[in-house]
Amino acid sequence: MRVAIAGAGAVGRSIAGELLENGHEVLLIDKAPTAISVERVPQAEWLLADACEITSLDEAALQRCNVVIAATGDDKVNLVVSLLAKTEYGVPRVVARVNNPKNEWLFNESWGVDVAVSTPRLMSALVEEAVSVGDLVRLLRFSHGDANLVELTLPPESAVAGTAVGDVAWPQDTSLVTIIRGSRVLTPSAEETLEAGDELLFVAAQAREEQLEDLLQVRREVTES
C-alpha cells in the first residue's frame, strides 16, 4: 500500500515509521526545509513541497496513493489537503489530524475526510481508560455513516459479564470488533464469553452510544416495594 503523509513533523515521522515497519510505501511531504530530515526516516520517500498546491500533489503522484494522511499542525492545511486528495485525485482513504478540538466538526466527508483523529482526544481517552471502568470512551470518529470507534472496559458487575457474545442483545448499528483480554487480542465469536475487565472495542453509530453504555453497565438491583 502506498501512503502519502502531509506534514513531516514528529507526528508525521512517527506514523511513517510504523507504516514502513509494516511493509508499506511512504511518501513524506513538507514545505519547510528544516522538516526534511531524511536521516530520521531513511526508508521513506521525501518531497519538499507545499501539499496545498496542485502542482506539488501532481509531483507526488497522489493518484497512485491508497491512503493520504494530513498530519500537519495546521487544521486549515489538513482540510485543504484532504479535500484535494479526495476530489482531485480520488484517493480511497483520507485520514486527517485535528489539532484544535473546536474544529473537529469540519472534518467530515464534505472536506474529503474519511477518518478524523483528534490528538488531544486520543490522549484524553488514554487517561480516561486508565482511570475509568465502565465508561464509554470515544477513540475515533468516522465521517461516513456518522459512526465512531468506541471503547469500554467491562466492569466486574456488568449485566453482560459471563454472557456469550451471541446471547447479548446489542443495539442496532453497533458492532463488537475486538476484545482485548490482558495481552490477548480476541476476534469475538458468538460463543466467546465476556469477562469482567475485558476491553471491548465497538464501531457504533453515535446515536447508539448511550444505549450501548447502558447495556454494559452494572447490574441494577431490583427492590421490592
Automatic annotation (TrEMBL):
Ranges for domain RCK N-terminal: 1-117
Annotated PROSITE patterns: RCK_C, RCK_N
Keywords, sorted A to Z: Ion transport, NAD, Potassium, Potassium transport, Transport
Annotated RCK C-terminal domain residues: 137-218
A Pfam family matched in the record: TrkA_N
InterPro entries, per the entry: K_uptake_TrkA, NAD(P)-bd_dom_sf, RCK_C, RCK_C_sf, RCK_N, Trk_Ktr_HKT_K-transport
SUPFAM superfamilies in the cross-refs: NAD(P)-binding Rossmann-fold domains, TrkA C-terminal domain-like
Name of the protein this chain belongs to: Trk system potassium uptake protein TrkA
Origin species: Streptomyces wedmorensis
